[in-house]
Amino acid sequence: VLRGYFQAHSTMIPTSISQIIEQVFNAAFSIGAAWFFIQQFATNDTEHAKFGAAGGTLGTGAGVLAGLCFMLIVYGVNRKTILRKVAKDTRHREIFQVLFLMVTPVIFTTFIYNCNAYLDNYLFFTILGWHGENQKALNAAYGEFSNYYVTLINVPLAMASASASAMMPEVSSCYATGDLDEANDKILETIRLTMFISIPAAVGLGVLAFPITGVLFPSSSSLSGKLLMMGAVSVVFSALSTITNSVLQSIGQQKKALHNAAISLGMDLAILALILAVFPKTNIYAVVFAGILFSLSMCILNNLSIRKHLNFRNEFKNTYVKPLIAAAIMGVVTWVVYYGLFAITKRPSISMLIAILIAIVVYLIAFVVVTGTTEAEMRRMPMGTKLVKVLRILRIYR
User: Fold this and answer.
1) 76 near 95, Cβ under 8 Å?
2) How many Cα atoms occupy the beta-carbon half-sphere of 240 within 13 Å?
3) 0.85 cut: is pTM over it?
4) CB count, 10 Å around CB of 39?
5) Cα distances (Å, whole numbers) of residue 269 to 75, 232, 262, 353
6) Strands, DSSP E only, in the chain?
7) Largest CA distance in the chain
8) What pLDDT, in 10s, does the model give residues 85-123?
């Protein structure tokens, strides 16, 4: 509610910062609480999964609480101004009715996103239980998936959520005034910004999947690395689904977003059930694949809906292909640097840190060279001024 209030008044900074804080606290507390509970209370593999899941759940609550606390601080700073506006308001009932009709589909869409994980969980244990799979092994596999894989995948998605929130008022305003060209420009700019971060994040998670899970989650097995390597691409699709979902909501097509989410959920559950029933040995990998399919389906359906209402045309070469080429170059260099350093030092944490730092620099250089991004365009990126300073030091910009 607080985020929505400030968004409605074209103030996106509180919402964006609170979402980033929420994801950072979610990841930090999930990792910390899972590690603490496992170290203090787990005595066998089954309890490792159980207490790890408990820690991951605590992290979600901690993230939401941190975001709420930040928004409450912002509200406290602006309380007097807000109360003065409330006192002058004479149309609150009419506004409440409009908000109710707008928010209800959004709530149900969010519900579908959240219940997707629960239903996948239910199908996973139920169908593989029918096949006689060992319950202890299933608990361990799903624990690795929910505690480690999901936590890591969600971290880069914070930027997508923040970008989507910042974009909504501008797109909504342009749509209301009939300026569809400007609305489409804002959407494409937001997608490009999101891909600028999401594509290299996906490549980095895939290339460094094993060292990342090993360093951040010492109690994890190689399964976590395999899951992350396989599912890293979902970062891109999930980010796109978040952006396109927000576009539909910003132009008053909340019901269409809900419809698309329901179709995607049905497809996710049907294919997951089919894979587990016919190929039970796929085990937890089937859940990862179904999750990728869900986000991909949301991207496609939402994009078709946006094209219908806004005549929007996605631009693939500069938005997806060129950043992917730059990220691929980064991925190769990162792989060589990490495994080369690890062969010498045998220290995964140090090797990973150095590899990540080099990866950032390599990606920036490759991105500018491949896409031809100008200095003015780069300044519009997150931390753009600082990035330009780095690129000038590297003689990329002169």
Assistant:
1) no
2) 29
3) no
4) 11
5) 41, 20, 11, 38
6) none
7) 71
8) 777 776 666 666 666 666 677 777 778 877 888 899 899
